[in-house]
Every structure is written in structure tokens, then in C-alpha cells.
Design a protein that fits this description.
The complex is a heterotrimer of chains A (318), B (298) and C (313).
Chain A: H1 15-19, H2 22-61, H3 68-73, E1 77-78, E2 85-86, H4 89-120, H5 123-136, H6 141-160, H7 170-194, H8 198-206, H9 211-222, H10 224-240, H11 243-248, H12 266-275, H13 283-313
Chain B: H1 9-13, H2 18-53, H3 59-63, H4 76-107, H5 113-125, H6 130-142, H7 152-176, H8 180-188, H9 193-221, H10 225-230, E1 235-236, H11 250-258, H12 263-294
Helix pairs in contact in B: 2-12, 4-7, 4-9, 4-11, 5-7, 6-7, 7-9, 8-9, 9-12, 11-12
Chain C: H1 2-20, E1 34-40, H2 45-58, E2 62-66, H3 71-79, E3 85-88, H4 98-103, E4 108-122, E5 130-132, H5 133-140, E6 162-166, H6 171-181, E7 192-194, H7 197-205, E8 210-215, H8 216-220, E9 227-232, E10 237-238, H9 242-246, E11 254-262, H10 263-268, H11 270-281, H12 283-289, H13 297-312
Parallel strand pairs in C: 1-2, 1-3, 5-9, 6-7, 6-8
Antiparallel strand pairs in C: 3-11, 4-8, 4-9, 4-11, 9-10
Helix pairs in contact in C: 2-12, 11-13
Classes of the chains: A mainly alpha (318), B mainly alpha (298), C alpha/beta (313).
Chain lengths: 318, 298, 313
């Protein structure tokens, strides 16, 4: 960078030599504006989505059959039967149980895979395995649903493990959703772990640590922000997953905690009703938005907590 | 021994004791097992689908249109529809997603409350079920302000909405993972902020961004529910003629065939799944090449 | 950035290329061209698809698309003026849907196109041969406490009640509950629902004391794995079959399938008129292809006159 040619002044720095010619500054400004517009578009879209959800939810609650307290605390969800009931608790329970099972399955698998690929596998293995995993993410969820119903439940759960579950059950739904999100967690976590500077590892090796200790005590904590992002992304996907639970877990809203029985999640209700024959203006249809908005609020709380958590524990190196 | 501590020689020299070695070995084994679980499931799925599907694959299957007769039915319109849709999705999410991630990560003040709301909001949208995006797409893209009708463009935009949060989030993580020393070094050498970003940070974060795009396309290619709501048909006997054309897509065909009582259609569905996965591999291959080229260890 | 642009362009070019060298489908001589948008019930879909395929075979320049958004979804798009023809497994709802059509000034004609029946099935291990509508009502009505089949009386075997049926958002559900229990949506809530009839078949097959109901064509395709139950609607036990559904002796669980045509489209778009003419003229053949119960000769005559009335006006 030639900064020594001052065109005016007594040889000291001037605006041009420090900041570059004015044209470049305008160029910089223009780029910033473009980026801002892009980000603003995304923000506008997200706000728009929230507003539409909220708006429709309001119209749902203005219907005389529904009260907010009944919605939040009621234990019976039968909105499309005659004499409808609108208590959302069974759906929330179903969502939490199935997502919980999914995360119990996916977090160890995802982080384990990520650690293996990042710290132990040779670059060739990594280049082969990572895309293969991402292929798993591309299998249409309908296929997973049928796989759960026709193979996983009868052959693995009832046959291999002898668990005596019902044809539709929450366990199958949860485990298969877990497998579905492993690529998400693994890929993002693996990227984060690979990005940890080599100097950190070398420092630890220099102090006599084994590869295991380096992985567990140095790399994972350093990559925590990315790993958490992967987990949260995976959890979000699990909570929002529709087809697998619709087919495999059944559509019986229940307050029973037993995952061997069928259960309905918030998304299964939305999916079944949204695609079905319910007339669009009816209360039953508007229930979709109310449930969707409730889901949104639920994940909002979870996400806020996770962001706080990451902010506190994130380690910035250098 | 004249050492002041009573630690064994091996430990002082950096050789772990036998118990540690066992722990180390079992750790590797554990990781390998965990990795293989997902791969095994994928293998089982592929084999199961392949047994039914591969016998159905043929050139005529790939170049015929859907039909009420299983023997004549094919997926040409579904393939082209899917490709058009993925084209629209990529065109939208890559610039919009990367630019948003860049702005939010590099230019926006992270301590301001509105930026934090934005961050949480975008993260939250990744959890909204795709069918809700379908409903919103119907209301605002097919009808409403954009009024695009039941077209490829409307379908692609709706799908892009579903996966945009993923691209932004992974993009931000990728940008965050670049060591600050890189940026500071560039600035110290006199680069402008944008030069530092364009020439150092962005290339360094391409692998992470590529992962985000791969995950997004993988997700979008298999989505059925939003497309149904937005008006994609199941029987379409022609290829899309432009962005304003009606269309169908592979996951729709698969879903439709799987739900038929006739067993033969379900075999066809298996074949269509294989085709879908092959297309996915090809689409992802491009992004994967990019990722591998720019991957580096600091 | 340039690389990404190149890649996107390449993908687009690939898509266009595949489009360009796509094979032609047929060599029909009809000169009708233009688009016809059909959407609605997934029960009617196989019939609509068979009709569209046949029509396009004769008129290769026409572009008929058929969707499966469900009867309700189809009516919603129909009354918004977005599609020309709505497939329906039930008549248009006078309370929720007709007002929307009126508001948007969409006028329509209702044409019968095929028949369907709901079959009651059990797992082969549960040997029930016949149930009266009264017994069905006892079993399925809201608040029913029947927990064992022998509580229904009439010699039904013992077995723990385990029920499977369509989800609440399906036309089959609406029809069954209205016909057997007297009110749409009136049903006990402790059964296993699914909106996918194939899934229900799986459920019944896998459960030794299962009883379920779904569309006749799903029974037909799995007849060897299910036990068909006859229904006594007051005049003896009748098992559903193409014949008994057509002549109405399988009652009350037989129903008509419809297509609703937008009369404005009929007048303004010649291709829509051609298409619906074709549908009605070939209704019985298309139904056979689609494995759906065809119209009787009498119904066909009615359909033809309904159609000419709509076109003549």
C-alpha cells in the first residue's frame, strides 16, 4: 500500500493517505448499504411471519368457543370433533417428549461423529463421510416416517428390543427424528471443531495431553459456540418436524407420559389439519395458527436461554 | 529418585499410564461407534429402498410423465420441477443469507437490543414447521401482496423462506469461527474493512457457509407440505416452461405414490426416492467441492 | 462469489437442458390448447388423473394439472377463483364454503363422476362377519364405553376394542361420522387416527384385535390381509363390492364423488369445456383405470344432463 505520497501538507499524513481515495470510501459505504438492505429484508420477512401468526391467533381467540386460559391449561385437544375442546397441553407434552427423545439420541451421536471426523479421522475419511451424512439430511421426511412405521417399530423396537410398543408410538417417532437431525448437529459442530486453531491443540500436546484429553478438554470447549449452534439448530428442526411424527407417532393427543403409546405433537396437528379437508375459515383451521404461534413462543424461550448460555461460556481465543 | 515429587517417570516424560491408554483407546472406539450408527441407518434405508426401487429405474421411467398406469408412469416433470425449484432457492438464499449473516456479524452492533432480538428471531424461525411457511406462502406469495399464483417462482420463494434461517445461522457461525487475528492482521496492513472481509474473512468462512447451503438444499429438496399448500400439482404432464409455470416436484410424486393403495405405485415411489437422492448428491457435490477447497486449519 | 454465480447458472442451464430434450408424451390429433387447473380430494385424484391423462393423450397441447390438496383445500382454491375444477368426496358445505363462493362471485355446476364406499375391516384373527349400523353406532359414537366387541351383542366374538380410522380432517371421517353417528365429527376419541389410509391398513394388519374403516379401494388392494365386515343397513348384511356400491345395496356407507366446475371457466375457456366433456363421456372407463367404483348407467345419464345444462346456460 503506497501511503507515502502526500499531495499536500508538509509531509504528514492526510485523509487521503490514511483512508484511501474518496471513491473507495464511497464504494465501502455502498457495500455496507447493500448488506444492510439484505439483512433488513430478512428481518422484515421474519417480523412479517411473526405478525401474521399473531394476527391469525387473535382471530382464533375471538371465537366464542375458545378462551386463552382454556387453551393453555386444558388437557383435552379435540378441536375437530363435534363439541370441540381446545386444551393444548397434550400437544405441548407430545412435542416436548418426542423432541426430548430425539435430542437424547442426536446429541451424543452428533457430537461423537463430529469429534471423530474432526480430530481422529484422516482427511480422506472425512471428505467421504461428511457428505454421506448430509445425504441423510436429504431423505424426504415422508420416507423416514414410513421407515419408522414399517421397519423400526416392528423389527427393532418390538422384535430386537422386545419393548412391546403400540403400532403408533412416541418412542419410534422420537428416535427417528433424532437420527434425522444428527447430520445437522454433526456438520455444524464438526465445522466448529475444525476451526479451532491448531495452536491450541499443539499447546496441549506440548503439555503432555493425549488426543482424547485434547479433544475433550480443549477442542470441545473452544468450539462450544458452534456446537451449541448446531444443537439448537437440530433441536429447532426436531421441534418443527412434521411428517415423521405424523406417520409414526400417531395422532392421538394424550396427557400420558408413556412413549410406548401414540401421542400427537403440535406439528402433527398442524400438518394433518393444514393438508386436510377442513374448511379454511373455520375455528378448527384457525387452531393451526394458534398452535403454530404457541410453538413459536415455546422455541423463542428455549432459544433465548441458549443464546444467553452461549454468550456466557463462549471462549474467544487470541 | 531425586525429584521432589513422586510422580512416575512415564508421566513426567509425557507417556500416559496404562489406565489412561485404555481410556484413550475406548474413547476412539466410542466415537467410531457413534459415527457409524447414523451411517448404518442410512445404509439400511438405502438398501430397503433400493430393493424396491432399483428394478424400476429405467430411461423410460426418467423420461415419462406421471400416469394412472404404473407401467407407464415416470418422473420427468417431477425432476425438472425439482431442479427449477432448487435453482430458485439457491439464487435467493445464497446472496440474501450470506449478506445478512455478514451484516449481522460484522457491521451490526451486537450489544444493541434490537440486534439481539433479530438474532433470537432468526434462530427461532428455524423451528417453525414448514407447513406454516406453506400457509404463509399461500397467503402472501401466491395471493396477497406478491400475487405470483401457483407458479415455480412462488414455490421456490416459499421453500427459500423455510431454509433462509439455516443459512444465516450457519453463515454467522462460520464468520465467527475465523480467528480475529486474521482480520486484525489485514487491517493492520492497511486494508479497508471491506477488503479485509472480502479477501480474508469471507474465503475463510466459505466452508461453513457451504455447509449451511448444503443442509438447506437437502432440507428444501425433500419438503412436501409447503408445496402442496402453495399449489403444486401432483399430476403434471409437462415440464416447467418458465418461472411462471405450474409445476410438480419429486417429494410430491413420492408422497402421492406412497399413499396409493396399489402396491406397484409404492415401488415407483422407492425408485423416485433413489433419483431424488442422486440429484441431491449432484447438487451438494458442487458446494462440497467448494468447501473442500477452502478448508484450512489455522 | 463468481464461482457461486457460475454454479447457479450451470444448474439453471441443466434444468433448461433437461426440459428441452424431454420426450414428447403422445401423438394425439386434438388441437385444444391452454391450461386446466384441477385440485381437491385425494379420493377423487386417481380418477381425475386418469381422465387428465386420457385427455392429454388426445390433445397434447393442453396442459391439465391435477392437485391433491384435499376436498376442503380444493374448495378453498375453487371459491377463490384459482382453479377451474374442484374434486370433491362430499358436497360443498353450505355453511362454510358456499358463502365464500358467493362472495367471490364464483358460480359452479356439480357433476357426479364416480362412486366410493367405506369398508369396515378387521384383522383376520378377529372374525366378525357382519355389523348392523346400530352396532357400529354403539361402537363409534362419542363417549362410547364399549371396551370389548362382545359387548355389542348379536354374537360378535370377544376381543379388546382397538380402533383405527381416518383423521378428523378427512372427508371419509366426515362422511362416516355423519352417516353412522348422525353428526359430522361425532365420534369417540380414543381411536388411532391417520390421514393416510395405507398407514391404517398397516395398523389393522399389525394388531390382532383391530377394527378400522377406510375407503374401499384400500381394502381391495389388501384384500388378502384383511377381513371384510358386511354392513346391515336394515335390509340384511351386505359386503361392499363394485356391484353393491353401484346399485346402492351397500348402504348407508356408499357415497358419490363429484367434480365442481366453475361456470365462468366453462364459458370462457374452451379447453375446460373440452376437458369436462371428455371426463363425463369417459367416466366409466377412467374409473376402471383408476380402480374406483364407476357410475351406473343411470348416474351417467344424469351427469350428462347436468353438464349440458351447465353449458347451455
Amino acid at each position: 500500500m503506497a501511503t507515502t505520497s502526500a499531495t499536500s501538507g508538509a509531509g504528514g499524513p492526510n485523509a487521503e493517505s490514511v483512508f484511501g481515495p474518496p471513491r473507495r470510501r464511497i464504494g465501502e459505504k455502498a457495500i455496507t448499504v447493500v448488506l444492510f438492505c439484505a439483512a433488513a429484508t430478512s428481518v422484515v420477512i421474519t417480523i412479517g411471519i411473526v405478525v401474521s401468526l399473531a394476527g391469525e391467533t387473535l382471530t382464533f381467540f375471538t371465537d366464542q368457543a375458545v378462551t386463552v386460559s382454556g387453551f393453555l391449561t386444558g388437557g383435552q385437544w379435540t378441536p375437530l370433533f363435534s363439541d370441540p375442546q381446545f386444551g393444548i397441553r397434550p400437544l405441548v407434552q407430545g412435542t416436548l417428549i418426542i423432541s426430548g427423545i430425539a435430542l437424547i439420541v442426536a446429541i451424543p451421536l452428533g457430537i461423537g461423529t463430529a469429534a471423530f471426523l474432526s480430530e481422529y479421522a484422516s482427511p480422506r475419511v472425512r471428505k467421504a463421510v461428511k457428505p454421506t451424512l448430509e445425504l441423510l439430511a436429504g431423505v424426504p421426511t415422508v420416507v423416514f416416517g414410513y421407515f419408522a412405521l414399517t421397519y423400526f417399530t416392528p423389527t427393532v423396537l418390538n422384535g430386537l428390543l422386545g419393548l412391546d410398543v403400540a403400532v403408533f408410538n412416541g418412542l419410534a417417532g422420537g428416535v427417528i427424528v433424532g437420527i434425522l437431525i444428527v447430520p445437522t448437529i454433526a456438520s455444524v459442530a464438526e465445522d466448529a471443531m475444525s476451526a479451532v486453531p491448531q495452536s491450541l491443540r499443539e499447546g496441549a500436546y506440548g503439555l503432555g495431553a493425549s488426543r482424547r484429553q485434547v479433544t475433550v478438554r480443549v477442542v470441545v470447549p473452544a468450539a462450544l459456540s458452534g456446537i451449541t449452534a448446531g444443537i439448537v439448530l437440530g433441536a429447532s428442526r426436531a421441534v418443527g418436524e412434521t411428517m415423521v411424527v405424523l406417520i409414526a407417532a400417531g395422532q392421538v393427543p394424550t396427557t400420558s407420559l408413556n412413549p410406548r403409546n401414540p401421542m400427537e405433537t403440535m406439528t402433527a396437528f398442524i400438518g394433518a389439519t393444514g393438508k386436510g379437508d377442513v374448511p379454511t375459515g373455520s375455528t378448527g383451521y384457525k387452531a393451526i395458527f394458534a398452535v403454530g404461534f404457541a410453538l413459536f413462543l415455546m422455541t423463542l424461550i428455549l432459544n433465548t436461554i441458549s443464546i444467553r448460555f452461549v454468550r456466557r461460556y463462549r471462549q474467544v481465543y487470541e | 529418585m531425586t525429584t521432589t515429587s513422586s510422580r512416575p517417570v512415564g508421566e513426567v516424560l509425557g507417556i500416559p499410564p496404562a489406565s489412561h491408554r485404555l481410556r484413550d483407546r475406548s474413547f476412539v472406539l466410542l466415537l467410531a461407534v457413534l459415527t457409524s450408527v447414523a451411517l448404518i441407518v442410512l445404509a439400511v434405508l438405502l438398501i430397503d429402498t433400493g430393493i424396491d426401487g432399483i428394478p424400476q429405474l429405467s430411461l423410460s421411467f426418467l423420461t415419462s410423465f406421471p400416469s394412472a398406469f404404473p407401467a407407464k408412469a415416470g418422473i420427468e416433470s417431477a425432476i425438472t420441477g425439482t431442479l427449477w425449484l432448487m435453482g430458485v432457492v439457491t439464487f435467493v438464499i445464497v446472496p440474501l443469507g450470506v449478506a445478512s449473516a455478514l451484516y449481522l456479524e460484522e457491521f451490526a452492533d451486537g450489544t444493541r437490543w434490537w440486534n439481539r432480538i433479530i438474532e433470537v428471531n432468526i434462530q427461532n424461525l428455524a423451528a417453525v414447521p414448514s407447513i406454516v411457511y406453506g400457509i404463509l406462502g399461500l397467503a402472501y406469495i401466491v395471493r396477497g401482496p406478491l400475487s405470483l399464483g401457483r407458479t415455480v417462482l412462488a414455490g421456490g420463494l416459499t421453500l427459500a423462506l423455510v431454509v433462509l434461517p439455516v443459512v444465516i445461522i450457519t453463515g454467522r457461525e462460520a464468520l465467527r469461527a475465523v480467528p480475529p487475528s486474521i482480520k486484525e492482521g489485514a487491517l493492520a496492513l492497511g486494508a479497508t474493512r471491506w477488503q479485509a472481509i472480502w479477501r480474508q474473512i469471507l474465503p475463510a468462512s466459505i466452508p461453513g457457509i457451504a455447509t449451511g447451503v448444503i443442509l438447506s438444499i437437502s432440507r428444501a429438496i425433500g419438503e412436501t407440505a409447503p408445496l402442496i399448500l402453495v399449489g403444486a400439482a401432483t399430476f403434471v404432464a409437462f415440464n416447467p416452461t418458465g418461472l411462471d409455470s405450474p409445476f410438480t416436484a419429486l417429494p410430491l410424486q413420492i408422497f402421492s405414490w406412497i399413499s396409493q393403495p396399489n402396491d406397484q405405485f409404492r415401488m415407483l415411489a422407492a425408485a423416485a426416492i433413489i433419483v431424488l437422492l442422486v440429484i441431491l448428491v449432484i447438487l451438494n457435490a458442487v458446494a462440497i467441492r467448494l468447501r473442500n477447497r477452502y478448508q484450512q486449519r489455522w | 462469489m463468481q464461482k457461486r454465480l457460475l454454479i447457479a447458472v450451470a444448474a439453471g442451464a441443466l434444468a433448461v437442458g433437461v426440459t428441452a430434450c424431454g420426450s414428447s408424451s403422445s401423438s394425439g390429433t386434438g388441437t385444444t390448447s391452454g391450461s386446466v387447473a384441477v385440485d381437491g380430494s385425494s379420493t377423487v385424484f386417481p380418477f381425475a388423473q386418469a381422465s387428465a391423462e386420457g385427455f392429454q393423450g388426445e390433445n397434447p397441447d393442453a396442459k391439465v394439472t391435477v392437485g391433491e390438496s384435499g376436498t376442503g383445500g380444493g374448495f378453498e382454491k375453487f371459491c377463490a377463483g384459482e382453479i377451474d375444477i374442484a374434486d370433491a368426496s362430499r358436497p360443498i358445505d353450505p355453511a362454510d364454503e358456499v358463502p365464500v363462493c358467493k362472495k367471490n362471485k364464483v358460480e359452479y355446476a356439480q357433476i357426479e363422476v364416480a362412486n366410493d364406499g367405506i369398508s369396515i375391516v378387521t384383522n383376520p384373527a378377529l372374525k366378525i362377519t357382519c355389523l348392523t349400523t346400530d352396532q357400529l353406532n354403539q361402537l363409534w359414537k362419542k363417549g362410547s364405553t364399549v371396551s370389548d366387541y362382545d359387548q355389542l351383542g348379536g354374537g360378535t366374538p370377544a376381543g379388546k376394542v382397538s380402533l383405527y380410522g381416518p383423521g378428523t380432517d378427512s372427508g371419509t371421517f366426515d362422511f362416516f361420522t355423519e352417516t353412522i353417528n348422525g353428526e359430522k365429527g361425532n365420534t369417540r376419541t380414543d381411536y388411532q387416527p391417520s390421514e393416510d389410509d395405507n398407514v391404517l391398513v398397516q395398523g389393522v394388519e399389525g394388531d390382532t384385535t383391530a377394527l378400522g374403516y377406510f375407503g374401499y379401494s384400500y381394502y381391495e388392494s389388501n384384500a388378502d390381509k384383511l377381513n371384510l365386515v358386511g354392513v346391515d343397513g336394515g335390509s340384511g348384511c351386505v359386503k361392499p363390492s363394485v356391484a353393491t356400491i353401484q346399485d346402492g345395496s351397500y348402504k348407508p356407507l356408499s357415497r358419490t364423488l363429484y367434480m365442481y366446475v366453475n361456470t365462468a371457466s366453462l364459458a370462457d375457456k374452451p379447453q375446460v369445456k373440452s376437458f369436462i366433456d371428455y371426463v363425463v363421456a369417459n367416466a366409466q372407463a377412467s374409473a376402471k383405470t383408476a380402480q374406483v367404483v364407476p357410475l351406473t348407467a343411470a348416474q351417467l345419464t344424469t351427469a350428462k344432463s347436468e353438464l349440458s345444462k351447465a353449458e347451455g346456460s
